[in-house]
């Protein structure tokens, strides 16, 4: 999960795509909050840092140049850590050796973060499914749930929901296309 959807970033750069910004906030707030909490901040302070990072990201994205060879997530992590350091400087706390150690561990993700990344990826897929659910009729969504996510045969899912098997196949194709579009580069 080292890249971010180029199409999402392009839509964000325009500055006028409210839906893209909402998607970005929903997808990245938990990750930024995780990094903020990992620095040792209390919940309220971490939430403040998240808001600062989102505000700064909103301001900087129009000038952001997407490079497929680099990680947007890495850039976002750097922005988060720099905002945290700035908060420390403003409070005149400075970076103690313990703080430096925490910052180094955030800057260099390890095995624990890989586990967290897997959980985050699963959460992204769940959130994307939620966002796409409204694009399908209830019976079609139920058939997709049974067929795609629960592994039930398409014929059974179709029959139980009063659909043709081809309708289920077509809906799966549309769902997978929309999931790829929504999650492109995020996983």
Automatic annotation (TrEMBL):
Keywords: DNA-binding, Sigma factor, Transcription, Transcription regulation
Protein species of origin: Mariniblastus fucicola
Residues in RNA polymerase sigma-70 region domain copies: 25-92
Keyword field contains Transcription: yes
Keyword hit for Aminoacyl-tRNA synthetase: no
GO-annotated biological processes: DNA-templated transcription initiation
The protein's name in its UniProt record: RNA polymerase sigma factor RpoE
Cited InterPro entries: RNA_pol_sigma-70-like, RNA_pol_sigma-70_dom, RNA_pol_sigma70_r2, RNA_pol_sigma_r2
GO molecular function: DNA binding; sigma factor activity
Domain of life, source organism: Bacteria
């Amino acid at each position: 999960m080292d890249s971010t959807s180029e199409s999402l970033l392009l839509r964000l750069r325009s500055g006028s795509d409210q839906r893209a910004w909402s998607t970005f906030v929903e997808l990245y707030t938990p990750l930024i909050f995780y990094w903020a909490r990992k620095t040792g901040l209390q919940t309220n302070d971490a939430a403040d840092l998240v808001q600062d990072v989102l505000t700064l990201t909103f301001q900087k994205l129009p000038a952001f140049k997407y490079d497929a060879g680099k990680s947007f997530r890495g850039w976002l992590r750097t922005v988060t850590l720099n905002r945290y350091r700035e908060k420390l400087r403003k409070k005149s706390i400075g970076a103690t050796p313990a703080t430096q150690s925490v910052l180094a561990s955030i800057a260099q993700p390890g095995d624990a973060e890989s586990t967290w990344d897997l959980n985050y990826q699963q959460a992204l897929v769940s959130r994307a499914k939620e966002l796409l659910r409204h694009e399908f009729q209830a019976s079609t969504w139920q058939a997709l749930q049974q067929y795609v996510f629960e592994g039930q045969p398409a014929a059974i899912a179709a029959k139980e929901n009063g659909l043709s098997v081809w309708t289920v196949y077509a809906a799966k194709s549309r769902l997978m296309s929309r999931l790829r579009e929504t999650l492109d580069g995020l996983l």
